[in-house]
Amino acid sequence: MTQRFLLALALLPAALMPAAVQAQGGLSGPSSVAADLTPGDGLTDPQPRSDFPRSVMQEGFAWKDGLAEQGLRFNLDYLALGQWSDSDLGEDRAGGGILRFYGAWQATDTGSLTFKVENRQAYGAVAPQFHGFETGALSITGTAFNDSGTILTNLFWTQRDPDGRWTLQLGQIDVTDFLDVYGMVSPYTAFQNLAFNTNPTINAPNPGLGIAGGARIGDNFYAVGAIADANGNPAEPDAQVFRTGETFKSLELGYTSGSDRLYFDNIHLTAWQSDAAEDGSRAEDKGLALSAAWFIDNQWMPFLRAGWSDGTAALYERSLSTGLGWYRRNTDLAGIGFNWAEARGIEDTQFTSELFYRFNISPDVQITPSIQYISNPLLDPASDNLTILGLRARVVF
Q1: Cβ contacts of residue 194 below 8 Å, gap of 6+?
Q2: Strand ranges (DSSP E) for 124-205?
Q3: What confidence category does residue 50 fall into, taking pLDDT thresholds of 50, 70 and 90?
Q4: Is the pLDDT of residue 28 over 90?
Q5: Of 9-23, 64-78, 143-157, the least confident
Q6: Longest CA–CA separation in the chain, Å
Q7: How many other CB atoms are found less than 10 A from the CB of residue 36?
Q8: What integer pLDDT is reported at residue 164 of this predicted model?
Q9: What residue ranges in 48-106 does DSSP mark as E strands?
Q10: What's the pLDDT tens digit per position in 199-238?
Q11: What are phi and psi of 195, to 5 degrees?
């Protein structure tokens, strides 16, 4: 197993380097460090309401801008999420916060080092990520807002082709930064329910050691692949994958209207496989995911996403999601999503919907109220539905 992993690791770069290869940003999805460091979306003409807190911390931001000119960009941000449900089961509220320090050092013209350290804490007895389970739904209603404590989610080297044809990443990676993504995949700025983030039929591992590569194939097609530690533990990073050989593999083939619109105009198919754990705690899992999203008039983003898995570790066995995003010129974002899902071993189906509005006080201060409605929650057969109100805040320094 270890020999096969090392061989695949060595062959991946060659497999992803045809005559024409991937755009420079091909491994930088909407929830990645690169996206969080880049103001705006690069497509619309944003007209923010204010420039707070930059306006009251001018010296500090000027210092940051000076470092950025020398190749070191970084942010410190804090996110908080509160949720309240009408369930008769468990705790009817959940809360949590995430403190993140992240950045990138452009060491050479074509090479950079990316880092991200986080501290995730629950405010009370239940963190939002587990609030759905607590209240009877087979659903992750507060993606990423858990109680993991201090974790290292990114520490990797990126190497790019000078002409933007291919990109490679090696080190401590989070595959959800680029795996089956679309414009509204980020739980920090868009939907909160996993049904509308990374596909809930994919058994994506926690951040860990891995290698990923992207390649542009002609003007409109691309490929992205990864091999990562299936037992990743960002709280205690290690290199045990070289001993166990237990890996998560993915390959995505996609179509886009142009490299500058990679995650806005995008249709792709993703195949993935995760090895079983030698201690018997996890069976082998594999599946397919299909995603289609298109940015219309740089304002509307309809999407359709589906997934299927063959295993026991992924949240759902089958999932189908659709919805619409509305991008505002004041950098606000509204979104509505609907999901149908089946879980292995449960005969019934669950329906989830989420509506949110991200109100941007400034590009660095966001308030996002949301409502999630779950019909036929699978973990509470006695309940017909569940409603969860949410309020998320984010401040970037």
Answers
A1: 139, 140, 141, 143, 200, 315
A2: 149-160, 166-173
A3: confident
A4: no
A5: 9-23
A6: 60
A7: 20
A8: 84
A9: 72-85, 93-106
A10: 999 999 999 999 999 999 988 999 999 999 999 999 999 9
A11: -60, -25
Per the structure block, which two tokens stand in for 253?
């083939």
295-318 burial: b if 16+ Cβ within 10 Å, else e = beeeeebebebbbbbebebbbbbb
Arithmetic mean of pLDDT over the chain: 90
Host H or E run for residue 300:
strand 300-310
- The CA radius of gyration of the chain, in Å to the nearest whole number, is 20
Res 51 pLDDT > 70 = yes
Reported pTM: 0.88
Distance between CA atoms of 21 and 164, rounded to whole angstroms? 7
d(CA 278, CA 269) in angstroms, rounded, equals 29
Confidence class for position 283, pLDDT limits 50, 70, 90: confident
Give dist(CA 96, CA 219) in Å, integer: 43
Say how far apart CA 317 and CA 332 lie, in whole Å.
34
117/234 Cα distance (integer angstroms): 9
| Angstrom distance (rounded) from CA 195 to CA 142 | 11
* CA neighbor of 173 nearest in space, from 210, 203, 213, 223: 210
CB contact at 8 A, 341 and 318: yes
User: How confident is residue 116, by pLDDT bands cut at 50, 70 and 90?
Assistant: very high
Q: d(Cα 189, Cα 366) in Å, to the nearest integer?
A: 8
Taking 90 as the threshold, does the pLDDT of residue 281 lie above it? no
* Look-up of token digits 């990126």: 158
Beta-bridged to residue 175, according to DSSP, are none
Q: Which two tokens stand for residue 26?
A: 């091909």
Q: How far apart are alpha carbons 197 and 130 in whole angstroms?
A: 16
Q: What contacts 368, CB < 8 A, 6 or more positions away?
A: 189, 356, 357, 358, 359, 390, 391, 392, 393, 394
Residue 179's nearest CA partner among 16, 352, 26, 304 is 26
* pLDDT digits 0-9 by tens, 124-163: 999 999 999 999 999 999 999 999 999 999 999 999 999 8
Residue with tokens 């309940």: 383
Distances (CA, A) of 156 to 55, 207, 292: 33, 11, 29
Q: Which of 166, 57, 167 lies closest to 114, judged by CA? A: 167
Residue-level pLDDT at 347: 87
In the DSSP assignment, the letter for residue 33 is: H
